[in-house]
Amino acid sequence: MYLRALYQKINIPVLQSSVYRIIIPFLLFFLLATYPALGQSGKWFPIVSNGSVYFSWGYNKEWYSPSNVHVRQESLGNEYTLQQVKAQDRPGWNTGIFNKPLTVPQYNYRLGYFFNKKQDWAFEINFDHTKYIIRQDQLIHLQGTLHGANFDGLIPFTYDSGFYYYLNNGANFLLFNLVKRLPLIHTANKNLKIDALAKAGIGPVIPHVENSLFGQKNDDGFQLGGWNAGVETALRATVLKYVYIELAQKVDYARYSGLRVYKGKARQAFATYELIMSLGITLPTGKNNTDFHASKPIE
Fold this sequence. Notes:
Elements: H1 2-9, H2 13-16, H3 18-39, E1 52-64, E2 67-73, E3 78-85, E4 87-88, E5 107-114, E6 121-128, E7 132-134, E8 138-146, E9 149-157, E10 164-167, E11 173-186, E12 192-204, E13 208-213, E14 216-217, E15 221-222, E16 226-239, E17 243-261, E18 264-284
Antiparallel strand pairs: 1-5, 1-18, 2-3, 2-18, 3-8, 4-7, 5-6, 6-11, 7-10, 8-9, 10-13, 11-12, 12-16, 13-14, 13-15, 16-17, 17-18
């Protein structure tokens, strides 16, 4: 009750959006789960209090695999599949740089904690605000039942025909990752560090679902819509010990179910390839973290 009352007093629009009402409890859980590690060294083997926390914000570009969208509208006598539909992203800055609010383009953030003595293993919350839009002006093979009658043929997927399908306010991949860091170059004074990172995780998807099928619009909005799993590799360059830039590539597989359509539900699955660039900050949680003071290079 106290957390809810505090949250309601927060008057920051981005935090009041529906997607963040779902994400914030996960963030609170992460912070509460790692708090004992920050204050009590040795209680959670091999977690140490002398670790480091990092946070980054960045932007991404996506490419999606073709997908089958299965639609079930029982009261209308409809159950059919839109086969091998093609989709695209919407980066948001392709018409100009920094001409929109920060949360309108396809953004991402990372919040992590390097927890072991060597500082090469981390837990991470990994969120990508990706936009998934079925392309207009394609002929799509529809197979199944329409109004109780069998149908097997091509339909024009166009606005004029009453069709659009957006996960435009986000396909929204949330992952809980395990991260491995591999040092490549570390100067003795720690003012320059270049590391490779490998990440893998699983978590929920939180799409914003908006569509029209045969001219019948859904009630659009955010929802918990399934799960996803992903792997990511990154190159991180840290300068002056605390600030870093990270270039990453990621492959994600997402399965969506129970997506709202007019008087029914839809499900689909697709793979995503992402390119991501982020700017971040990293801070020690103890006074003697060797990543933040001069020492012998890591071997």
